[in-house]
Amino acid sequence: MKFLSTGFSLLLSLTSVSVFANNYTLSIENGGTVDPTLEVGNIVDLALDSPDINQMIWGNVQIEYDPTVLEAQYVDETAIFYGFFTYWTHAPANGAVCGGGMPYYYTTGGGSDRANVYAARYGEGSGPSAYIDHVNGTIRFYHGNYLYTGYYEPLRLGFKVLKTGTTTITVRSETETTYDWCNFDTVTPTNFTFGQL
């Protein structure tokens, strides 16, 4: 069941202790980092995951991409009970904590099949699951998840291919119980090849 950030928000505002840095991986949803079949205008689904299994992972995440090569379309959480969830909060838009972008809300036909499930379950325009800055090429969100081996699905990121070739997508994260996208504990760049060079 999707949880909102109501009770947890108080905890976030009272604490900001960084215990350790969580690790993240980014890949094409069907595996790997290369898909030579993609063409300009196609949508590619990426999976944001973590090797930190069977433990709680949390924190602020910022995904950076080249907006001349890709256009972020959606940030779709899993619709199953255990998954990689984001907090539905407007904090990632707050410029005082280095936020910005436009909210991504769940609407029927507005994302992947997961968005349709959330729109049906919680209503059209539920969310936002994340904020997308199309000008600077960033996606920002806060998440808190317990990743059970074999019982969860990664976060789905949908991108429209604007230019084929090789590009780098970087995941920056901060493992703290506070909303803040100014500083990061980890920086993980991944090179992808979408379509022909």
Q: What does this entry look like structurally?
A:
This protein has 197 residues and is mainly beta. Helices cover 10% and strands 39% of the residues. It has helices spanning 6-14, 113-122, and strands at 25-28, 34-35, 43-49, 56-64, 70-76, 102-106, 126-133, 138-146, 155-161, 165-174, 186-194. Strands 2-11-10-4-8-7-6 form a seven-stranded mixed sheet. It has a four-stranded antiparallel sheet with strand order 1-3-9-5, with no helix packed on it. The longest helix has 10 residues, at 113-122. The protein is globular.
Q: What are the salient characteristics of this protein?
A:
single chain, 197 residues, mainly beta, four-stranded antiparallel sheet, 39% strand
Distance between the termini: 42 Å
Order of helices and strands: HEEEEEEHEEEEE
Average pLDDT, to the nearest integer?
A: 90
Category by helix and strand content: mainly beta
Q: How many strands, what sense, and barrel or not for the largest sheet? A: 7 strands, mixed
Tell the overall outline. Answer: globular
Strand content: 35-45%
Tell me the number of helical segments per DSSP (H or I, 4 or more residues long). Answer: 2
Number of strands: 11
Radius of gyration: 16 Å
Helical content stands at under 10%
